[in-house]
């Protein structure tokens, strides 16, 4: 009798506790959901906000003037490709800035692809596991160096070296910025090349050795071609990083908005333009919207590059799993 | 006859195994790699050597003097720490909680997939774009709105530390969410089922089974995020960084038994990376300030390297924990 009453008491307690527990569970779930919604709110807000401001830019300035300014007397074709937002007759062409961005990013990616793939092969195929475990974090650490440090280094040391080696016309030029950029792109490509090479199954290598191929033949004709998708995704990511980098180009490229293919001339990139001019513009002026437009252009370009790399990576994952 | 041919092919094999061009190629690759790595390291070594002669306690604590040619970088260090501190408050809880929701509660829902995709791609968006967003949204919309409803004149509606921290928080949010999801995903599902089997609720499972295992992995992401924020310059360029502040606008955060002095979040601030930028490009005499430039750069590198090394340590611990759990 006594035992039974005690038991029912326990059951009641248990029931009570379980309802408390249930309420707690639900509250926690909604709390977490709130956080997730807040985070996605901010993320969607970036997309929405940038689109809205660039829509305003189209309304205020007009889409054509972001590419050229019609001026019958100035040019044979009557089009001016210039970025002079502060003059009396403001010109907002993105073309010279885009040319500047590409002129710094392309050489940087070219240098980094060669060196990055070499380091990637070295890490994946040549050295021992133990050494690799030390080298990999070191490479990742290089990728994490603040870019202002590299900009400073290019100004303080690199400019002098480049001047003595190549004797460029201007002390700060696109080539100097490219070298600075390759300091951050090399670690990215090296690390992703290493990942791509290491994801090639061991059996493939063993089969190649069994057929009588030497180590170098296996690397150059079997492993590297098999990893080419992963490596190219790495190069795309590196290119996106080089285009979006601000501090190095702001400090080392000289910032003259001219269209040129001379790598030793001073150029001005999209990122450096935003960084240099955004602090001084008055809110909701045409110049302000123009800066937002080139920002959105940059955003879309890097977003698409990342998406392509992402698709390549996810395809690779699927293929390797099978 | 047959014997001879075997001998011949074995000789051929030996000849082939030498593969002289291949060996030379591998040697060239090794030599080039060592050379490139040496070049990368030489940047750091050069900066460290020049910087080491400048750094001492006074340099780390004093304010700049004599139009930046003397004195130290104390305010810049405190500014960097304060901005990072506020950023952590904004970004870390929200990032971790969202990741738990995405991975543990809504793993297969369509909105989690979209969120994961956009977070993934947002992580690669240039930091200057976040700066644009910070200025246009936080300063010009949220700040102006706060000023209006709180009647504070022009306090929040201008670039101040609070908005720099908020912008950096949005910048690192994708990193934190991604690394947390990765850490949670590394905990095998049979652990979850075992916990439910013992009668634990979902939250109990997350709190007592999943989270302790994922913690070092999550910490790795958080530390990397802090290191990234401390090193970023582009997004804070027009969000309240000051060239020089004569004195620190301090407020004291009282924690009962001790208090933390911090720069007033509604004021301008000095920032290590911005300090380097401004000293090298816009000071009156760049040659005179060069030792201070090297010193500041060394401090910034040391800060990020120490943070990154800690993160690597945690990642190592995370992998070890997982290995133990899986019994492999």
Write the layout of secondary structure elements.
The complex is a heterodimer of chains A (322) and B (328).
Chain A: H1 2-61, E1 69-70, E2 79-80, E3 83-84, E4 91-92, H2 95-126, H3 129-143, H4 147-166, H5 174-198, H6 202-210, H7 215-226, H8 228-244, H9 247-252, H10 270-277, H11 286-321
Antiparallel strand pairs in A: 1-2, 3-4
Helix pairs in contact in A: 1-11, 2-5, 2-8, 3-5, 4-5, 5-8, 6-7, 8-11, 10-11
Chain B: H1 2-18, H2 20-52, H3 57-61, E1 64-65, E2 70-71, H4 74-105, H5 110-122, H6 127-150, H7 161-186, H8 189-197, H9 202-231, E3 250-254, E4 259-263, H10 272-282, H11 290-326
Antiparallel strand pairs in B: 1-2, 3-4
State the oligomer.
heterodimer
The residue ranges of chain A in which pLDDT falls below 50 over 5 or more consecutive positions are: none
Average pLDDT for all residues of chain A = 83
Tally of distinct domains of chain A: 2
Q: Any overview of this molecule?
A:
- The complex is a heterodimer of chains A (322) and B (328).
- Chain A folds into 2 domains: 2-61; 94-321, MetI-like (MetI-like fold, Orthogonal Bundle).
- The longest helix of chain A is centred in the N-terminal third of the chain and has 60 residues, at 2-61.
- Chain A starts with a helix and ends with a helix.
- In chain A, strands 1-2 form a two-stranded antiparallel sheet. In chain A, strands 3-4 form a two-stranded antiparallel sheet.
- The mean pLDDT of chain A is 83.
- Chain A is mainly alpha-helical.
- Chain A is 75% helix and 2% strand.
- Chain B has a single domain, classed as Orthogonal Bundle (MetI-like fold), CATH 1.10.3720.10.
- In chain B, helix 4 (74-105) runs antiparallel to helix 9 (202-231), helix 5 crosses helix 7 (161-186) and helix 7 crosses helix 9 (202-231).
- With 328 residues, chain B is mostly helical.
- Classes of the chains: A mainly alpha (322), B mainly alpha (328).
